[in-house]
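User: I'm preparing a small set of examples for a lab meeting where we compare how different chains pack in three dimensions. I only have the primary sequence for this one, and I'd like the structure in token form so I can line it up with the others. Please keep the answer compact; I'll paste it straight into my notes.
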Amino acid sequence: MIKNTSQSDVLLISASKDEFDVVLEAESDWQFQKNSRGFVCHTREIGEHAGNKFSITVAHPTDEKGCFAPELVSLMVNEFKPRCISTVGVCAGEADNVSLGDVIIADRVFQYDAETLRDFQEGKVKGEDVFHHISDYHLSPLWSRKAEDFSSDWVNTIKCRRPMGIPSVSVQPKVHVVSMGAGNPEKEYPALFPGIGRYMQEVFATEMGTASVGTIARVKNTDSCIIVKAVADQTNHKKKTPFYFYAIEASYRFLMAFLEDNLLLQPTGYYFPGITQTGDMLPTVSAAGI
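Assistant: Understood. Below is the structure token output for the 290-residue chain.
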């Protein structure tokens, strides 16, 4: 069935084809959609009663070469006018603080380049040249507290079998609300987490794609934005480890459960330091630029 409505409460962006496929396979009621701009995506409704229903659209925007295209996310926001922008998928986790399969909710996003970070450690560049993107996205204090205290019942909705027999891996995933780095996996190196840890605390995960989604949500003045990933590896956030597909579904299942409980209760899911003091209300700002 082709659905032609062009508005959705939640726009869920998949940075990879694997993430997109796992999300589609997780539900049986996705409806194929292709709107007037030619955007190909899938939609569904969540909630049993009129007072708590919301619609969600999942998309994997790519360019002509099949690569993730953040610029198309901006156009999709213009078209679908979502109340919330989100992304799910895999990340690499810092081994001393998170386990494989754990869910990471980004309270801040730090965009880094591994080569520049290496130069910083060697004293060739200044810290402000490495960490200047740290304030692009912050999760609101209210949503942060709710995520930390969220019931673990959502774990029971994961259908993918959890890999077993791996030392130091907990029986079920834990939830961490921490800072997340966004970078290029091809440029990773072993000293990444120690290098970042010298400058800022609680960066326990790295991945790709989050920085652009958070920035677009900020520029477009979207009510809410939440970035959810799960740990598939502890050195590279793109490698297909035994936890790869489990981690994708785990991040998606947490997001769905969290939004069902919180999206319609909280008008704003993120804030920008220096603009609002409480983090619970988003002021009107210009949406020009993207």
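A couple of notes for your slides: The mean pLDDT is 77. Residues 88-271 form a domain with the Rossmann fold fold (CATH 3.40.50.1580).

User: Perfect, thanks.
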